[in-house]
Amino acid sequence: MPDDAPRMGKADLICNPQSVKIRFGKKGIVQIESLSKCILLTDLRLQENSVRRIGGLDACSKLVTLDLSDNRIEHIEGLSMLTALRTLSLGQNLIETIAPGCLDHLVSLTDLDLANNRLLKLENLGKLVALTHLRVEGNRIIAIEGLARLTKLKFLNITRNNVKKIARLQS
Predict the structure, then answer these.
(1) CA of 46: how far to CAs of 23, 88, 89, 95, in Å?
(2) Alpha-carbon distance 62 to 81, whole Å?
(3) How far is the C-alpha of 136 from the C-alpha of 41, rounded, in Å?
(4) pTM
(5) Are 149 and 104 in contact (CB under 8 A)?
(6) Which of 159, 105, 113, 104 is nearest to 132 (CA)?
(7) 11-64 pLDDT, tens digit each
(8) Range name among 32-36, 63-67, 134-138, 157-161 with the lowest pLDDT average
(9) Which of the two residues, 91 and 6, has the higher pLDDT score?
């Protein structure tokens, strides 16, 4: 986007109720809202924006892919209604912790990207039983443990961390 181009704010992300895909990368979006009529939406990509908070997605229960990478998100929240979600990209944000319960409802999630954040440890992932791919490279993780319940996990990228301990990877 050119430096003199207008930046989009919260009110500018409006979708057609028939939309199944929305892709607004590099548009200066700061807030997700006005998606309450987007009940058919399956693919939402808002990478490389200025989003600080995940919200406004409750009506998007058919969402399969959500890409919020390279934003300014500090907390994982607002995802509880997205039970059909299979791919969640939150890489290159400011996330420091995975709070208890924040991912518990994502029962269909197979791919999770939390690369290049500020995570110190992997935690609260036990209910992601469908997870096959997990990217957490480029964080500050010192211990990898508690992944035993992720029996379908096939790919785990932990490079560029400070891992000193690996434990309980199998049940």
Answers:
(1) 6, 12, 10, 17
(2) 9
(3) 27
(4) 0.90
(5) no
(6) 113
(7) 345 567 778 999 999 999 999 877 888 899 999 999 999 999 999 999 999 999
(8) 32-36
(9) 91
Query: Quick one: pLDDT at residue 168?
Result: 65
71: which 2 tokens? 């934003």
- DSSP secondary structure of 18-63: T-SEEE-TTS------S-TT-TT--EEE--SS------S-TT-TT-
Distance CA 1, CA 154 (A): 37
Give the tokens for residue 7. Answer: 């930046």
- CB atoms closer than 10 angstroms to residue 2: 4
> Where do we find the tokens 């930046």?
7
Q: In whole angstroms, how far apart are CA 116 and each of 23, 56, 90?
A: 22, 25, 9
Tokens of 170: 């199998």
